[in-house]
Structure formats: C-alpha cells, structure tokens
C-alpha cells in the first residue's frame, strides 16, 4: 500500500506536500553529518587501510559462508573481523586493489550484502517462541514498497528503521529514526506502535494500534516526508506533536508492555527443546585465523546457522545441549566471551589508535587494563565507553562513563556521550592510575546491595571529578 497525497488510512492520517513544513521541527538540520556507512561499493579509509561493513540479506549464514568470509578477510585485508554494536560484519585492512577480489569472494560464497535503506529486525526472528509478530515479513514487504517508489526519496545515509516483533532479543536498546514495535491487543492480535527518533525508551510514539498494512503505509509516509525535506533529514527533525495529530494518536491504544530483553551472550532458550549460543568476540574483534579455528569445531559439533546480533555478538544455532558446553569451551580459547556476566562485555572500546587515524590512544589495550585494574566498574549495571576521539563511533549514545582520547590526555565524561563536556581531564601518562582511582571510588563507597551505577549516581559528578583530580 503506497501512500499518496490526499489518501487516508482507516483511522490514520497520511501526509500531503502542504504538511511538510509543519512536520519538521523548529530546530535546524545539523550543519555537520558523518559520512555514509562503509560498504563493499564504498569502503572507508581508516588508520589500518580500507574498512568494509556488510549485513547479509539472509537472517544468518552457514558455517561454510562464515569461513569463506574469514578467508576473504585474511586474503584481501589484515584478517581482523569485527561485529558491530548493531550486528554488522566489519572487515579491516583492505587495500584499494584488493576490494574487487573481496567482493568476488563474498559473491562466490553466496553472501548478498543488504543495500538501500537500513531495516533492522530482531536477530532471532522466526525462531523465538516469545516473539509477537514476524518482523522480517513486514521488513520484506516494506522494502518492496520502498523500492517501487518513483521517484525514490533521497534519504540520509545513516537513516535506520527498526521493526521489532518482540521476543527474547529485542532491539529496544538500539536507536532508530523510525521504529515499529509490536504489542498485543486485548483480543491477542498483534498491533504496531510507530515512534520516531530514539531507543524504545526515548523514542516519541506518534501512532498506535496499527495493522500490518497501516504500519507499512505509515513508514512510507514518513520516508516520503523526510525525502521531501532533504537528504540530511532524520527522525529527530520531525515534529512529534504534529505527527500525533496527523495520525490521531491515542496512547491508550498502545500494546501491552513487554518483558525486558535478555543478554545475547550465553545460552538463550528459544523454546522447550531448542537453544542458541551467543558468543562475543573480545571487545568486538577477532582475527580470521582464530575464527576459522573455531568454525572447524563448531561445524563438527553440528552448528547449522550463524547469525549476528546487537552488542557485537554471534549466535550459533543447531547445537544439542551436550555439544554446547564443549563448543563454549573452545570458543573461549579462540578469543570469544561466552558468558553474559563476563566483565569484559561491559567495556566498549572503539577500534583505537593504529586502526583509526582519528584515535588518540589504544582503546582495546585500555579496555584490557580496565578489566584488570577496575573490575568494580564492570558489574553489568553500566558500560564504560573507551572512545579514541570525540566522535564516539563504538557507542554513539550516552553511557555512565566515557573515556575520551584527546591530543593531551583523556576526558572523563559522566552520563553522556563522547562529544559531551568532560567532568575532568587526566594526563597522557595517567590513564591506568585514573582507571584504578575510578574502581577504588566505587569499591570504597558502594553500599550493601548497591550496583556500580547506583553508587556513581549517588556520589555524583563532582565526587568523581574530585577523585580524579586527587589522583
């Protein structure tokens, strides 16, 4: 169903050209935007060569396909493979003359990279007994409508649509320009809530109780509006109040609240008989040789499919309970984190110096030091973002603590992003002692039953800044 001017969905308003000026908020579009996402056709130059990012069109890959990807990464690049925070593959260290060979090898493996507007669905879609709706079906139908639009809307390169059908691994923590979130109606039918600009917690709902067809039409209407505004327009630039009026939003019609998502790392129950095993490469990165070594064991153990998930994770499907612990043990020896409560899961470094020309320090080594020096911070209640510069690529959103690299040292940000104003600065040679001081601050002040995040929140920014200045 394609929305045209003057059309009206049942119970939901659509858009016309006259509404565009009202739909865009008063705040100006940002004067600076980050470039398009790196891909096979447009790799990005970094400190260690060209970077290629890809998301397969299929829900997952076979072991043979992941092995082919690892071999291609080693043959045409430096062999470093990353799983991003949103579950994309990244291959590092390519040279201009090697990209064509990489593309050919990926094509021979039967891996088709997704292109066009980014549409994300939960990683266990179609397998999870707790999911409410088939998000991938809606995504497929939506993409067909988008591809048929003439003229095609010119959209922001980083614009993202999330279609979340629920389940154990929801996409609630990921930010999106446009978000469809399934809920259950009183008669146990699934309906969609449409929101803009943010995570599930921060996005602004603008329409509720949408059927599949209404949800697709509403997203198309928003995309056409953004395209008419201009190629830099994002969900945050739309006026939620005007949209609520257009869509006749009724908060009472929003679906029932869903349970929290589980960690993607560790054993994840799919139903009464099936499980998935989530593995996280240490700090999101693994070398192709280690991955190939692990895949040989995984294949022998019966892994039938490998999917990527948010939070830098691979999901293994098809393992029997008896094989799972053996595979888990081998995975740990190959450089994977295998348990949800592993402290290293809560240290989030970017690629760092050597891999990124903008980075001012070796963030992955700093993350290793953080695990050793200040484990008190990594109890699972918060994440520590180690950003080589102020761009914050590894975690664009806010976190409790951010260690931001600068030319003369490090900025310490509390409850903000890498671009936020630091509460304190520490010198170039004092990172380890600064991390130790933060760990000591929590260890010496945490009350019984209190988490690290609760402790730091109670102490406040001034106490954190004072402790670092005394270091």
Automatic annotation (TrEMBL):
It holds the Pfam family NIR_SIR_ferr. Residues 43-107 form the Nitrite/Sulfite reductase ferredoxin-like domain. GO terms for molecular function: 4 iron, 4 sulfur cluster binding; metal ion binding; oxidoreductase activity. Keywords: 4Fe-4S, Heme, Iron, Iron-sulfur, Metal-binding, Oxidoreductase. SUPFAM superfamilies: Nitrite and sulphite reductase 4Fe-4S domain-like (SSF56014), Nitrite/Sulfite reductase N-terminal domain-like (SSF55124). It comes from the Bacteria. PANTHER family: BLR3264 PROTEIN (PTHR32439:SF9), FERREDOXIN--NITRITE REDUCTASE, CHLOROPLASTIC (PTHR32439). NCBIfam families: CobG. This is Precorrin-3B synthase. It comes from Rhizobium lusitanum.
């Amino acid at each position: 169903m394609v929305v045209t001017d003057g059309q009206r969905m049942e119970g939901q308003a659509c858009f016309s050209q006259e509404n565009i000026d009202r739909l865009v908020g008063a705040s100006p579009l940002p004067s600076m935007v980050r470039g398009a996402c790196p891909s096979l056709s447009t790799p990005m130059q970094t400190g260690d060569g060209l970077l290629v990012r890809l998301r397969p069109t299929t829900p997952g890959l076979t072991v043979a396909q992941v092995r082919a990807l690892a071999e291609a990464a080693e043959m045409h690049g430096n062999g470093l493979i990353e799983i991003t925070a949103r579950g994309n593959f990244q291959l590092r260290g390519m040279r201009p003359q090697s990209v064509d060979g990489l593309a050919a090898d990926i094509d021979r493996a039967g891996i088709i990279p997704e292109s066009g507007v980014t549409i994300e669905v939960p990683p266990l879609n179609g397998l999870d007994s707790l999911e409410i709706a088939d998000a991938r079906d809606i995504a497929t139908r939506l993409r067909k409508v988008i591809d048929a639009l003439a003229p095609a809307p010119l959209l922001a390169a980083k614009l993202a649509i999330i279609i979340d059908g629920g389940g154990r691994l929801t996409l609630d923590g990921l930010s999106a320009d446009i978000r469809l979130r399934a809920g259950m109606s009183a008669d146990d039918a699934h309906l969609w809530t449409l929101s803009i600009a943010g995570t599930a917690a921060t996005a602004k709902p603008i329409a509720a109780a949408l059927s599949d067809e209404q949800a697709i039409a509403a997203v198309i209407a928003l995309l056409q509006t953004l395209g008419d505004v201009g190629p830099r327009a994002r969900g945050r630039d739309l006026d939620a109040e005007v949209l609520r009026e257009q869509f006749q939003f009724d908060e009472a019609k929003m679906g029932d609240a869903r349970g929290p998502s589980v960690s993607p790392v560790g054993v994840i129950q799919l139903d009464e008989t099936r499980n998935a095993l989530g593995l996280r490469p240490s700090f999101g990165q693994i070398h192709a040789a280690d991955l190939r070594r692990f895949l040989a064991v995984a294949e022998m153990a019966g892994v039938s499919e490998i999917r990527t998930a948010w939070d830098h994770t691979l999901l293994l499907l098809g393992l029997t309970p008896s094989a799972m612990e053996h595979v888990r043990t081998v995975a740990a020896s190959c450089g994977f984190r295998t348990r949800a409560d592993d402290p290293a899961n809560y240290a989030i470094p970017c690629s760092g110096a050597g891999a990124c020309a903008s980075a001012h320090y070796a963030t992955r080594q700093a993350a290793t030091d953080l695990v050793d020096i200040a484990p008190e911070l990594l109890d699972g209640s918060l994440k520590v973002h180690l950003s080589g510069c102020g761009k914050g690529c590894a975690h664009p959103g806010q976190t409790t603590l951010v260690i931001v690299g600068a030319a003369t040292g490090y900025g310490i940000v509390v409850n903000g992003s890498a671009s936020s104003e630091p509460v304190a600065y520490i010198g170039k040679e004092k990172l380890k002692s600064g991390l130790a001081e933060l760990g000591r601050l929590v260890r010496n002040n945490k009350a019984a039953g209190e988490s690290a995040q609760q402790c730091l929140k109670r102490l406040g920014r001034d106490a954190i800044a004072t402790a670092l200045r005394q270091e």
